[in-house]
Amino acid sequence: MEYIKEVDKVKEGYKLKEKIRKEAIKLGANIVGFADVKSWEEFENTSESYYPQNIWPWSKSVIVLGVQIYLPMLETTPSVVYSELYDTTNRMLDEMSYRLANYLNRLGHKAFFFPRDCYGDISVLVKKPEAAFSHVLAGKYAGLGTIGYNHTLITKEYGPRVRLVSVITDAELPPDEVIEKDLCIKCLCCKNSCPTSAFTTKEDALIADMDKVKCAEYHEKLRNNYTYPCGVCIKVCPIGEDKKLYGTSSVSKEGIIHCQSHGAKEQFGSGGVEALSLEVRV
Ligand code: SF4
Ligand code: SF4
Q1: Which of 28, 88, 252, 253 is spaced 20 to 30 A from 21 at the CA atom?
Q2: Could you read off the pLDDT of 89-108 as tens digits, one per residue?
Q3: Alpha carbon of 180 to ligand 2 centroid (Å)
Q4: Cβ-count burial of 242 within 10 angstroms (0-12 exposed, 13-18 middle, 19+ buried)?
């Protein structure tokens, strides 16, 4: 009898998970994954104070939603075109996660979303470049991808060109399988293109040492120029189906200069964007 009850509970969990997945896709998510909060304990990638279950003791599952970053816009970085896209993805993530948590509430479950960035201003990250919650780790535990050399979540669909948000709930949902084989091929394109040389290779590990302060300082300059964020290390990554769709260079050199010549405080040709990015990134 107990066994039958357990089987029914698992079946219900799968049904609920598929309902939630459909809803998330209807709301605009490109990718959706499910993690068990126990993964934080199992993998021990972060200290205990960052475990969702230690912050919200009733939490059982984390639903991670991702939206793609369109390559033809990203390839114009640093530009207002990419900056606007970044803001749009943020709005999408806020809305989708808010609405999905509401959907779970209507089904009788506790739920809320952990905001996608959660810092007051980029200047704060210069002093303390750490987030209260890592959506990248959540994405890994939810089977959406693996963590690459450049500290981003590398997905099959979009490489590192995804923005993520997490919905935390007391619903017990069967987790998706974690991807075991690294998707990052350690090609070092991200390291070699970084305008601040923020990455240092570790011989015995895939994930690089990253000077997050250097990266944040550069982002402060970009923010002041209205061309935030940088995105070069995700632009150049060769992994992802989107690279197959758009090709390795989806914008002409002239097109990049054109986009960098409009909308920002310092524009291409006035020394601004060139000085900020150290070179025109084509
Ligand atoms: S976002 Fe830009 S500055 Fe920061 S690590 Fe990536 S390439 Fe370097
Ligand atoms: S650019 Fe190369 S090294 Fe960097 S994350 Fe992508 S695959 Fe890994």
Answers
A1: 88
A2: 999 999 999 999 999 999 99
A3: 17
A4: buried
Pairing status of strand 146-147 against strand 199-200: unpaired
Atom of ligand 2 nearest to the CA of 188: 3
Ligand at minimal distance from the CA of 215 is 1
Whether 189 is in the pocket of ligand 2, judged by its Cβ within 6 Å, is yes
| Planar angle of CA 113, 168, 172, nearest 5 degrees | 150
Kindly report the protein residue whose alpha carbon is nearest to atom 2 of ligand 2: 187
Cβ of 218 less than 6 Å from ligand 1: yes
Alpha-carbon span 92 to 116, nearest angstrom: 10
Residue 282 contacts by C-beta under 8 Å, 6 or more apart in sequence? Answer: 249, 253, 256
Pair of tokens at residue 131: 């987030």
Sequence letter at residue 6 = E
Strand ranges across the sheet with 111-114: 31-36, 61-68, 162-169, 111-114
Closest approach atom of ligand 2 to CA 154 = 5
| H/E stretch holding 162 | strand 162-169
The per-residue pLDDT for range 250-276, each reduced to its tens digit, is: 999 999 999 999 999 987 655 555 545
The whole-angstrom separation of Cα 233 and Cα 152 is 9
Q: DSSP of 187-198, one letter per residue?
A: --HHHHH-TT--
Give residue-wise pLDDT tens across range 200-257.
999 999 999 999 999 999 999 999 999 999 999 999 999 999 999 999 899 999 999 9
Residue 164 C-alpha to ligand 2 middle, in angstroms?
Answer: 19
In a 13 Å sphere around the CA of 280, the CA atoms on its Cβ side amount to 17
Tokens standing for residue 85: 């896209």
**pLDDT tier for residue 151 given thresholds of 50, 70 and 90:** very high
Q: What is the distance in A from the centroid of ligand 2 to the CA of 160?
A: 9
